[in-house]
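Question (not urgent): is this output format expected?
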Amino acid sequence: INETLNLEFSSEQYTGLILIIKEAFKGHGITMLDASINHFVLQVCLSIARSLAGYTIDVSGDKRIGAMADKLEFETASDIIRGLKALLDISSGENEAHDLTIHLIGRQIIMPSGIDTVSDETKDILHCIFCRINEKMGINLLNDATLAYFSLHFESLLTRLSYGIRIKNPLMHQIKIKY
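Got this back:
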């Protein structure tokens, strides 16, 4: 990360960064897949690099931002930003918290039990898609477990598309070679 982003982290600072992220996730009951965690750490480092270089993100014109304030992901991102301010003496603010929130929403997060982050609209869209698949192909995906599983992935996909976030499949290189 030091070489990629031209950041000069000491091993203690990097360890502190990881601890801040882990504690924020633990405090809000968030679990992520390893590949998603690694990508999120990179996004946090990008946020730090922006702050250290004096750049800020301007999200004032984005109408979607207001809806984030009451999300668990925004609380988590805000906790991370507060921790980074204390650790690195940087001036990241709410705009950086919004950016990290977008990346948290766009990842496949395993939320604490009982917390449903998938919108009713997304569930309705998938229900219509599954009905059509059943109609055309005779494959019944209309059970609660399948809907819940696909809803998490679909909601993340819609968020990534909405904000122009691209993610790479960590296995793509191996797939291309093998197949």
